[in-house]
Amino acid sequence: MAAPNQTLYISNLNDKLRKPDLRLSLYTLFSTYGVVLDVVALKTMKHRGQAFVAFKDVTSATQAMRAMDGFNIFGKEMKINYARTKSNKIAKLDGTFKMPNSAAAVAETTEIKPFVALPGTASSPPATGPSIPAAPAAEATVGQKRLREEDEDESEAEMEMEEDDD
């Protein structure tokens, strides 16, 4: 058995249920034991009939595991253990969340690639020292706001109020 954890691993669930129904059922069932942060139900062939329930604290998870282990839900008895690792939701709340290796490697490789100018375009050499702001362009053209065209009839006319017969 894994060390006590805020996240419970639940197996032997009925795999005929739809994913939203299973998540809602597990949430309502386990929320009586404490604050449920997240319910992850998996429906792939490898992970059918399994779910993870993340609690706010370890004591709530322990209490729920002791009370609900072997509980018959939708015709099958649940098997409940502590999850091996911390839930992503809890890690994000703690500030210890790290991206999975494959996604982190992709993000890292995209940051390293230098900019390559298209052939035939003029490219300026990269700046090596502190950048000096370029001199402002000559202010030959200064924009002017257009004046508003107003009809004298509209500005001086009073608004007529319609009366309601109610």
From TrEMBL:
Domain RRM residues, every copy: 6-85
Compositionally biased tracts (Acidic residues): 150-166
InterPro entries in the cross-refs: Nucleotide-bd_a/b_plait_sf, RBD_domain_sf, RRM_dom
Highest taxon of the lineage: Eukaryota
Residue ranges, annotated region (Disordered): 117-166
Presence of the UniProt keyword Transmembrane in the record: no
UniProt KW Ribonucleoprotein keyword: yes
Pfam families reported for this sequence: RRM_1
Keywords: Ribonucleoprotein, RNA-binding
Gene Ontology, cellular component aspect: ribonucleoprotein complex
GO function terms (MF aspect): RNA binding
CDD domains: RRM1_U1A_like
Protein name in UniProt: Similar to U2 small nuclear ribonucleoprotein B&apos acc. no. P08579
Organism of this sequence: Pyronema omphalodes (strain CBS 100304) (Pyronema confluens)
